[in-house]
Amino acid sequence: MLQSQLFTKTLKSIPKDAVSISHQLLVRAGFINQLTSGVWSFLPLGWRVYQKLKNIIEKELDIIGCQEILLPALIPSEIWQRTNRWSTMDPPLFKVKDRHEKWFGLGSTHEEVITELARQYIISYKDLPQALYQIQDKFRNEIRSSGGLLRTREFMMKDLYSFHSSEKDLKKFYQDVVSAYRRIFKSCNLKTILVEAHSGSIGGNRSQEFMVLAEAGEDKILYCPKCEWGANVEVTKDIKKCPLCRTKLEIRNSIEIGHVFELGTLYSGKLKAFFTDEKSEKKPLMMGCYGIGLPRIIATIVEFSHDQDGIVWPEKVSPFEYHLLSFKKDKEADKIYRFLSQADKEVLFDDRPISPGEKMKDADLIGISKRLIISQKTGKMIEYKERSKRKTRLVKLKELIL
Length: 402
What we know:
CATH class of the largest domain: Alpha Beta
CATH topology of the largest domain: BirA Bifunctional Protein, domain 2
Structural class: alpha+beta
Largest sheet: 9 strands, mixed
Shape: elongated
CATH architecture of the largest domain: 2-Layer Sandwich
Number of strands: 23
CATH superfamily of the largest domain: Bira Bifunctional Protein, Domain 2
Helix content: 25-40%
Distance between the termini: 21 Å
Low-confidence stretches: none
Mean pLDDT: 95
């Protein structure tokens, strides 16, 4: 991609009302643009990061046997009413009425819809287990949107739903998802703590949240600095010491980037989603659900992966593999760009007619994981630098495709 043609602009000043560092940097570097409160457009750079994260998630879910689907965002009020959530969801649903005076809710979560599908397609224990997920826009009528992508009213979420014949099988798959989530977050260079959590409007027998300790976080957890036990303050009594190692607990700010639930038969019972077991007896399906908000993960990555000059993208979610900068007027940079592109390397080539200093500042701000510089000093070699490191080295072109 030629940077002269890239649909974005970097900003020198911090956007108004941008308090969190991720909000400041993602806007300044040209990854996202705000339409209105809590509603964001993803520009080409931001969308590339989103796609990288999406691919990581899909790969890990494929490993544990999940299948991808797509469910409607426009959900009739009747199905919400059957589970008593039409008027009790928190945050409230966005509600719309069509020209026939029929009410719909914009999907903030999809337990009802997926359970209705399961009721039609899962008949016998032989059809189980099943694990179905989607990555889709969600709508939540938040009172207050804040922190850029950290708390929004429209966002992309991966929601996974599993169906089982027994509680034992549900618990086993639940742990498989927990392990997959750990791998996903590790790929993003995020250190998480799995804490006991409140089930909220989703409900169920048990829920846990993946938290990242951060001052920008709006959640508060009780945290053990020794064994890393944790619990959201919403679900814990006034305890002072860790229940596992008796160390004094700390109250820490955190960002929730994943939530997993053991739903049991909460939705299958209400929506009459039954299966026939080995003894030909009808039983309600055992369910679990598991969510990840993709924009919030992107913001959280930036909260932790940045320096005084800009974003420092982890390699697996960097919008491009290489950022190519040329400080001399010849055809060498064009040849390098074409060579790397033909080798299926993702390259952003800064071909703009601006000073080397401006190119360097923008490169630091955008934060692509690997930088290549062509100048009079490098001769026939290329200066190679990783964004997360200070040291540079000279390399040959062919070394970049090995």
